[in-house]
Amino acid sequence: MAGFGVPSDAFARYHRLRGNDVLMVSGTDEHGTPVMVAADRESKSYVEIADYYNASFREDFRRLGLSYDCFSRTTTLNHERVTQDLFKTLYEHGAIIEQAQLVSFSATTGHTLPDRYIEGTCPICGYPEARGDQCDNCGNQLDPIDLIEPRSLIDGSTPEFRETNHLFLDLPRFADALRSWMGGHDEWRANVRNFSLRLLDEIRPRPITRDLDWGVRIPIPGTPRIRTSASTSGSTPSSATSRPASSGRPRPTTRTPGANGGRTIVRSTRTSRARTTSSSTP
Length: 282
Ligand SMILES: [Zn+2]
Fold this sequence. Notes:
By secondary structure, this protein is α+β, with helices and mostly antiparallel strands. The chain has a single domain, classed as Methionyl-trna Synthetase, domain 2 (Beta Complex). It is built from seven helices and 13 strands. A four-stranded mixed β-sheet has the order 2-1-12-13. The radius of gyration is 20 Å and the shape is globular. Bound molecules: zinc ion (ZN).
């Protein structure tokens, strides 16, 4: 709440007071593994879990006085159409590529198992409760397959690691354009600009599909089973055990803050400039 709710609300209120037209929007990310895990645990359907948390967050935010103009959810038909349109446009422009990826699966349910649902012994310091994405004892980032005796945090079973083909957003393709755009922003603080430029040096294709039956269907023939992740559908990014086949030792690409949508876009039409605030803004 302190990370995303309060700053975006203060920012929106400030621009309303300035007389700018403000549209403060957010919503719950209801697709992906966190909802599926919760549904399995509580013996409920995915829809029931999504409905419950959407209502719960909506009520919390209303009582806290957050001034959303629109608080939506990723399970609406509108969201599906926008996501598919974005996906199709990127695909037709060659910005989506196919790569092999090592993915963790639950041996029990057959569903993908995100990094943070895997625990094991850290291969670097020997800490017995290291997570699949990082070790809280030594601070190193990890891949779940590197853990000694990995186990599912959901039911203790040993995860299976399988290489499957997925679709990736070809982010390096945009690096040069972004670099020159950032170069024109002398008003940015030096540490913000340097942080952003360093990200560009390390930018890699990002997986945007999952082996799930709960998500937005990919609008490309030949991929009936695979659904988009939240990262393309515009809400909270999801985590994946990402390992493009061509690279040596890649790292998980994102950290996942939680099941609720945490990103707010505040658009000020007077300046015609979209602004984004989120908990991960440097
Ligand atoms: Zn460690």
